[in-house]
Amino acid sequence: MAENRAEILAGAAVLAVAIGFLAWSVGGGKLTGGAKTYSLTASFRSVEGIRAGSDVRLAGVKVGTVTDLSLNPETYYADAVVEVDARVQLPTDSAILISSEGLLGGNFVELVPGGAEEILAPGDEIEDTQGAVSLLTLLMKWVGGSGEDKAATP
Questions:
Q1: What are the residues facing 97 on neighbouring strands?
Q2: Which strands, in side-by-side order, build the sheet including 78-85?
Q3: Nearest CA to 96 among 135, 47, 31?
Q4: Would you say residue 142 lies in a domain?
């Protein structure tokens, strides 16, 4: 009988921890404490590795979330909408780019503040963008080399 109690208590503890992790993971994608946010838009040539819910970071700190991605049928670019913490005031010449956490890590959106005195207003577009860089394409360029370099060498 004592063994059954121990097993029941251990099972209850595991279940409680699992419920705690589930609650943490569901709430982890949101900004803390119901912080106020504002949206900004940007158009990228490629948003490979990014989806709605991806992190938006500034200096490595999460300051927002990607809320929408759609293909612009006129430009064939990916239009992104990001929600940024209202405490983060970005200059109008700021840049936004797709960055990688490493060779095996995922991608995230990175904000790089500019130096202008004017501040982006809610709904404004960040015009300085850099899309995702394909690691495979870079490796193929490096391995294949350039035919022009070989032809110029005697």
A1: 110, 130
A2: 37-44, 78-85, 61-71, 55-58, 107-112, 95-100, 128-130
A3: 47
A4: no
Domain that holds residue 63: 32-134
Q: What is the DSSP string of 50-65?
A: --TT-EEEETTEEEEE
Q: How many domains does the chain have?
A: 2
CA-CA distance, 89 to 84, in Å (whole number)?
9
The secondary structure element, H or E, covering residue 22 is helix 2-28
Question: 């912080």: which residue's tokens?
Answer: 35
pLDDT mean by block of 10 residues, the chain; 154 residues: 77 80 62 74 90 92 94 94 94 91 79 92 90 70 64 49
Interior angle at CA 16, CA 13 and CA 20, nearest 5: 140
Same domain membership, residue 47 and residue 17: no
> Are 92 and 26 members of one domain?
no
Give the pLDDT of residue 31. Answer: 44
Whether 87 and 123 map to the same domain: the answer is yes
